[in-house]
TrEMBL record:
Recorded superkingdom: Eukaryota
Pfam families: SnoaL_4
Positions of the SnoaL-like domain: 9-152
Lineage summary: Eukaryota, Fungi, Dikarya, Basidiomycota, Agaricomycotina
Full protein name: SnoaL-like domain-containing protein
InterPro entries the UniProt entry points to: NTF2-like_dom_sf, SnoaL-like
Amino acid sequence: MASYTVADYLLDRVQIEETVTRLLWYADRKEWDKISSVFAENIVIDYTNLFGGEPVSTTGTDQAKAWKDMVNYLDATQHVASGLLMDLPQPSADHDSVQRPTEVKFTCNVFASHVKTTARGGPLLDIGGRYNIKAIRLTEALAGNPWRIQSLKAYGVPLSVTSDCLLLNRSFDSHFL
């Protein structure tokens, strides 16, 4: 069994945080060719708490396309994650007693701002809430960040509800928000 050291723990933690940051960064900057790089091959996206329906099983590439269709319609977005709480195992003095994790579940606070200048009720829709995320470690990753998002469940609270900026896009499929 490989030992799991404090350095391993800290590196995992930073890399998982970076994975979430890259996801939101790429979406807000419309870097669609990069978004699928933070996802596992097959993923589950669950926005049922916000919009009803059912969770969606898809690929990272298809999810990136769905978000592209949504976000390109808007004038701007900004997503910010904070307060990541992870179930990473804590290294012990006996390094051999803790295995290096292959998956990690965590939660984080999220604030999302959506702008559509022509929306009735005002151009801004703000949603606060949290994501519950499961990330997996790619075993074939020899260099770089091995962590990929395998599932994401959103829990949200609309903070500004006067805008219909998301509803103006008639092709919008809320399962892929």
